[in-house]
Design brief:
Elements (H helix, E strand, L loop, with lengths): L1 E14 L4 E3 L4 E2 L3 E17 L7 E4 L2 E2 L2 H18 L5 E8 L8 H16 L6 H8 L6 H4 L4 E5 L8 E6 L5 E6 L10 H11 L3 H20 L3 H20 L10 H15 L4 E4 L6 E6 L3 H11 L5 E4 L6 E3 L1
Parallel strand pairs: 5-7
Antiparallel strand pairs: 1-4, 1-14, 2-3, 4-7, 4-8, 5-6, 8-9, 10-12, 10-13, 11-12
Helix pairs in contact: 2-3, 6-7, 8-9
Length: 323
């Protein structure tokens, strides 16, 4: 038996990935940019065991069924095809992120799984190459290979659609998450994404403006211009959610409390805090802010929403192997 264990953090896209031009290779319609978060992560161990008849998948101490295990096996097969190692695997994963709730658990999950399999299989791909493999499990996992501010370059083929770190985000950056609902979503990200691409008349404008937003936000990061960073983040996220309202049938991930949290963040700005909201495909709100302001912002949001967890996250690092 051989084993390896790895840890990866979630990331939150500031310039969103929403739509695939190649569903099989997970090639995106547009490049994206994210912030890796320290508070949410996945730890995964892969054991290659010749005594097993087939792959096994255990998530959060529960043995998973055929559908979920098949998904994991298909992902592991990418590494098996590369290395020629066909040994069945026991995969044990602990998700320190609510699953399927719009908190990017799939990003950390597949980044951690890919890192462990990369090690145990002896493939030893460099991080950039590894990001092209984990992309095939979850598009956003591409970005979780790295820490700080990370760009996923959309590329034109399997080999050049990968992530790079563009800044370590060590300049007083944090994110506060208001967990509106951590239950499983009624519409998965993949379902919502495809419905939007197929039916929303707003989608073409989304792709075009996302490219401009990316150029502008990278300039803001180079200049360490937090206000510009926040304004672009907020605008881009709301544009993505706007495309869903134009889909047929229209849908939204927002809940009544979501709307209230967005209003509360705007109030925080009126009180002098540099705080800007964004959301992925779920009702939970993430607030980009200064780390030095994060505890005050957390306190104010807890007062406003006493029934909702409010979690501070510092900037997260890239994937790491665990002993």
């Amino acid at each position: 038996m051989k084993s390896a264990k790895a840890k990866a953090h979630t990331n939150i896209a500031l310039i969103k990935y929403w739509g695939k031009k190649d569903p099989k290779l997970f090639l995106p319609m547009n490049s994206s940019l994210s912030l890796t978060l320290d508070a949410f992560y996945t730890e995964t161990e892969v054991i290659l065991d010749g005594n097993l008849e087939m792959d096994q998948f255990i998530l959060n101490d529960e043995i998973q069924g055929e559908a979920e295990t098949t998904k994991i096996s298909n992902f592991l097969n990418l590494f098996r095809q590369e290395t020629g190692i066909l040994t069945p695997a026991k995969v044990t994963s602990q998700n320190f992120v609510p699953t399927a709730a719009g908190l990017a658990s799939s990003a950390s999950a597949f980044a951690a799984l890919g890192a462990a399999m990369n090690e145990v299989s002896g493939m030893k791909a460099d991080p950039t190459t590894l990001s092209t493999f984990v992309r095939r499990g979850s598009g956003s996992a591409t970005r979780s290979v790295f820490g700080g501010f990370v760009e996923w370059q959309m590329g034109t083929c399997n080999e050049d659609s990968h992530a790079i770190q563009i800044d370590d985000a060590s300049w007083d950056i944090a994110m506060v998450t208001v967990a509106v609902n951590t239950g499983k979503k009624t519409i998965s990200s993949r379902q919502g994404m495809q419905l939007t691409v197929d039916t929303s008349p707003f989608y073409a404008s989304w792709v075009e403006t996302a490219a401009t937003d990316l150029v502008d936000i990278k300039q803001a990061i180079r200049n360490q211009d937090f206000q510009q960073l926040g304004e672009i983040t907020e605008s881009n996220g709301m544009k993505m959610h706007g495309t869903m309202l134009g889909a047929r049938p229209p849908f939204t991930y927002m809940e009544p409390t979501t709307i209230d949290v967005l209003a509360a963040v705007r109030q925080l700005r009126q009180q002098g805090f540099e705080a800007y909201y964004t959301m992925d495909a779920g009702p939970n709100v993430k607030v980009l802010c200064h780390l030095s302001d994060s505890e005050k912002i957390q306190m104010k949001l807890k007062e406003a929403f006493p029934n909702n967890p409010v979690i501070i996250s510092k900037v997260g690092g890239g994937i790491e192997l665990l002993s």
